[in-house]
């Protein structure tokens, strides 16, 4: 499109990513919500802070950044799309466009930057062999629904962010009373394999949470926010039966404590341990002075949503995922 210049970046050097990081941070500040999800922000940060001596990084394989700029003299950065791939036939994209999501300098008709980026993303997916493209929209609203429909995406999932006030009301009985269990902190270097087994069994059918690897877990342990004391695990009969992993978001207003990952091995379902582990995580966060608890849950998971509502959580906002099948170059040409 003549009105905008879209640059496709693979394995970019830090000078190319610096203005993108600034854009993502500024949109995050305006929204009061992260402009890129954790995985995609990690990939962007690996580009911005490469480990290699030559200033490039291969730490985000399969990831592509698309930058939309104005075509006038200043070439202002107007938007960004981050596309990740699984190495096969599934792709996920998030768009970061300031609230004024049009290039008002385009003549004669203003151009929707998000639409232009999404068209460019589909071209990249086509060139990479096609596949299922998942579009995530944070704080989704009617505009996101309309854009998805216009690009022939269909709604796949709704992800609720739920919040509660901390501390919760005191319990009448201790957690796990009358059970032969041990509640303790995660031990880095010792508990990884057992935790991965339990987590991946608990989320076997989940598109994101059920496929953690040791590398994924170790990467999280290296994050500055990681605190093993806030990663509570439950042992029963010598097995790691479940866990509640918390994360503190200290730079948002108000500061929040997140139930980051919670899981119970299917062999231990039906005992109320999911509720008890959630409570253990919230109590740990409250003891650190946090007054707001937060978690994400699939809107279609009626049992979990009901559980969290019964604990005092309410929905703050909804994120949505839309999907479409994108043809390969060969298939697109045949049509």
Low-pLDDT runs of 5+ residues are 101-106
Query: What top-tier CATH class of the largest domain fits best?
Result: Alpha Beta
CATH superfamily of the largest domain: Gcn5-related N-acetyltransferase (GNAT)
| Quantity of strands, as a count | 14
Portion in helices: 25-40%
Largest sheet: 12 strands, mixed
Please, what is the average pLDDT? 89
Q: Based on Cα principal axes, name the global outline.
A: elongated
- What name is given to the CATH topology of the largest domain? Aminopeptidase
How widely separated are the two ends? Answer: 22 Å
Write the layout of secondary structure elements.
Elements: E1 4-9, H1 14-31, H2 38-48, E2 64-70, E3 77-85, E4 90-96, E5 102-103, E6 111-112, H3 113-127, E7 131-137, H4 142-150, E8 154-165, E9 181-185, H5 192-202, H6 214-221, E10 231-236, E11 239-249, E12 256-264, H7 273-287, E13 292-298, H8 302-310, E14 314-326, H9 329-334
Parallel strand pairs: 4-7, 12-13
Antiparallel strand pairs: 1-2, 2-3, 3-4, 5-6, 7-14, 8-13, 8-14, 9-10, 10-11, 11-12
Helix pairs in contact: 1-2
């Amino acid at each position: 499109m003549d009105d905008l210049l879209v640059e496709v970046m693979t394995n970019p050097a830090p000078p190319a990513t610096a203005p993108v990081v600034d854009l993502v941070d500024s949109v995050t500040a305006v929204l009061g919500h992260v402009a890129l999800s954790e995985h995609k922000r990690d990939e962007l940060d690996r580009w911005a802070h490469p480990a290699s001596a030559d200033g490039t990084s291969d730490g985000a394989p399969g990831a592509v950044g698309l930058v939309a700029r104005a075509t006038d003299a200043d070439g202002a950065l107007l938007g960004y799309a981050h596309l990740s791939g699984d190495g096969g036939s599934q792709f996920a994209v998030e768009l970061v466009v300031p609230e004024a999501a049009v290039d008002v300098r385009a003549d004669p008709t203003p151009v929707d930057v998000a639409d232009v980026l999404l068209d460019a993303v589909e071209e990249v997916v086509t060139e990479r062999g096609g596949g299922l493209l998942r579009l995530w929209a944070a704080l989704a609203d009617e505009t996101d629904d309309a854009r998805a429909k216009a690009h022939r995406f269909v709604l796949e999932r709704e992800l609720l962010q739920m919040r509660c006030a901390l501390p919760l009301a005191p319990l009448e009985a201790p957690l796990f009373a009358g059970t032969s269990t041990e509640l303790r902190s995660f031990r880095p270097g010792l508990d990884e394999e057992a935790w991965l087994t339990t987590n991946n069994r608990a989320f076997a059918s989940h598109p994101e949470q059920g496929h953690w690897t040791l590398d994924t877990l170790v990467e999280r342990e290296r994050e500055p926010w990681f605190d093993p004391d806030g990663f509570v695990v439950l042992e029963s009969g010598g097995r790691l039966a479940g866990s509640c992993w918390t994360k503190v978001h200290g730079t948002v207003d108000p500061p929040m404590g997140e139930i980051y990952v919670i899981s119970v091995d299917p062999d231990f379902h039906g005992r109320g341990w999911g509720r008890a582990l959630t409570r253990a995580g919230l109590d740990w966060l409250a003891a650190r002075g946090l007054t707001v608890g937060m978690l994400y849950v699939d809107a279609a998971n009626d049992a979990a949503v009901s559980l969290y509502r019964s604990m005092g959580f309410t929905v703050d906002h909804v994120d949505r995922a839309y999907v479409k099948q994108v043809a390969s170059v060969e298939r697109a040409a045949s049509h």
